[in-house]
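It is worth pausing here to work through a concrete case rather than discussing structure prediction in the abstract. The textbook approach is simple: state the sequence, then state the predicted structure, then interpret. We follow exactly that order.
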Amino acid sequence: MMKMLNIVAGVVSFGTFCIAADSARLADNANLLLGTDIFPYPELAGHNSLDPDFGLYANEIVGPRMPDGMVSPSPLTSFRGVTMHARGAGYCHSDKYIIGFSQLNTEYNSYMNPVIMPSVGRLYTASGDADGSEGYRVEKDSSSEIAKPYYYTVSLKNGVKAEITATKHVGVYRYTFPKSFQSKILLDLAATHRLSKITDAWIRVVDSTTIEGYQKLKLIQNFNYYGNNVYFVAKFDKPYRCFAVWNDKRIYQTDFGVRYAEKSGGVSKLGVFADYCTDEGEQIQVKIAVSPTSIEDARAKLEAEAPNWDFDATAQKCKNAWNDLFSKIQVEGGTDAQKALFYTSILRCAKFANVENISMLSTMNYQVLFLLDPESIAEKIRDIVKTKYVRRGFFGNGFVPYSLSFYRRGVKDVDLKAIYELYFNLVNDPKYERYAEFIKLGYLPYIPRKNGVYKMNDDCANRTLGYAYEFYCLAEMAKEIGRPQSEMDFLLKHSKNYKNLLDPKTGFIRAKTADGKWLEPFDPADSSLRSPYNEGNAWQYTYMILHDIPELIKIAGGNEAFVAKLDKLFTTPNHNAICDVSGMIGCYTHGNGNDRFIPYLYVEAGAPYKTQKMVRYIMDTMYKNAPGALPNNDDYGNLSGWYVMSAMGLYPPINAAAADNFVLGSPLFKKITLRLPEYIYGSNTFTIECENYAPENIYVEWVELDGKRLDNFKMPIDALRTGKKLVFKMSPKPVIR
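Step two, the predicted structure:
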């Protein structure tokens, strides 16, 4: 049997996280260990802790997964972090131990189900943790870890080598054991995220190679991706010598087919172990299929997707799927580190784009996915319309502008009328959120917290801006579907409500009390966790007038004054920054999702060279080819999506609802070839090329689209469908216009 090591041999040196120059296989460029540890640069981290127990980091998943897969079987190291951001995914590269491998890993990991673990020696029925408690946890050899899109491996200090690959619904494990008469493979049905609870579970050993079970979970609010029920079937390629089931009272050695369950009061302990006597180097494979609906469905998926025991062929199939996806965006030039970051970032945009995130404003992952698979965007929009799913972010409902944006970019086979009616009715519902105040007063007044208790709707400044943008987008929807002029006038009127919080004296968005007075004291650089600026400050939110940037420039005093104010944003120290406000350049916070578009505002004010300089600086400093790769939580590919789009020099429209022009930056590679899909793009091939390409040439002298000069440093969205070539003439010096 071909060893998996041969598949990845010569591709990656994980001591330095460098991709070998002779690697021609696109999937091998990606390194899933990036973004799995704390960002160790205090000069950029802001107030974010450098302790993985408390600090925020990308929370990336390291296990393999098919591009359209459900399962992502991955190692777990700890859930001792104090927030969902600190070890929210259950894995930190610098952690010492592996506490198991779970199947449905997510960035905010409310699922940890079911946990499988190879063990040698004494039986433990709980993992233990770094607090010193004993358990089946095992120290890992971090230098042995390889994490590719299709394959993960690690050597454990108990002598076991673990390897993982995956199909769409099946995690496939290959464990290589040492010589031992106490080799075991455990399945733990009680282990779960500290903020989740298993309320019901059962397990059954069907025969000498098959175990099945079920879990019912009480999940973290707002992070219920797969439903409350997890069904699984686990199949072993070798019969176990014996087996036993445990709960919180005892260990049971019993017959096949007996079902063990716990219900009342939640599940504290429930699991099973399969026992083996192994020779040195003996391999045992386990396949675990997962379903949110039934055991029968899990069994059917196992038989359909992984009918045999050819681990390497399964890994190759997964690898081929990622190669097919990556072939849609191919790059030439650039360093190995830049390619690793680029393809890893593409993977995370495709891998974790989900129905939850499309309702948030900062959906950069969907901008990348719209290049790779726009039809999946249409499907997600239709699903949301069908279920009438509504989720609020910090800035209102991002689904309104983005559904309109994708509609105007070609996704016409969605029911825009239904979207409009759903949200138009909500904003006119006097009992829903704070729209009644927004309409009556023209802003949301500051409401002091009662007893220190915070509610999402209390955010006044940021939510006023979000409501104003939502009203603008609804007005644009009304125009598309032919609604009465009176409705459009009503919506457009209140889309200007942001002006009621724009203080002409200071030039900043400020909070007001219900009687119309400015909230005092006022420091535009003072960040807060919640109201009046949610996870931000006045410097950041003042630019969140996405639908009226020209008016914002005018209010600032014109282009020159606006550019000067942007310069000051990047140099003014941030005060009292919370941990979420990280990845800092002055008051700009790249680590959080609210203001990542701001560097591209220089283009709007006629200073594109400043965009080019700042964007390159951010790519060089905020993205690292190391486990501590990203300055904050990736939010399912949003930090990654910013990198992908910026590396291509194509930033999506700042006003998503306009869907008119890409804002052009500074491409990272000599040549980028986009092989775009039939849906929307008509299978067009579009290239981005850089003349006078060199690492030090970060500025752009001019840009041409199919031979025509683009003097405003914007490219029509439709060019990806109708155009062929975008050429940047690079320069080592800024070109001031």
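Step three, interpretation. The CA atoms of residues 26 and 310 lie 23 Å apart. The first strand starts at residue 12 and ends at 13.
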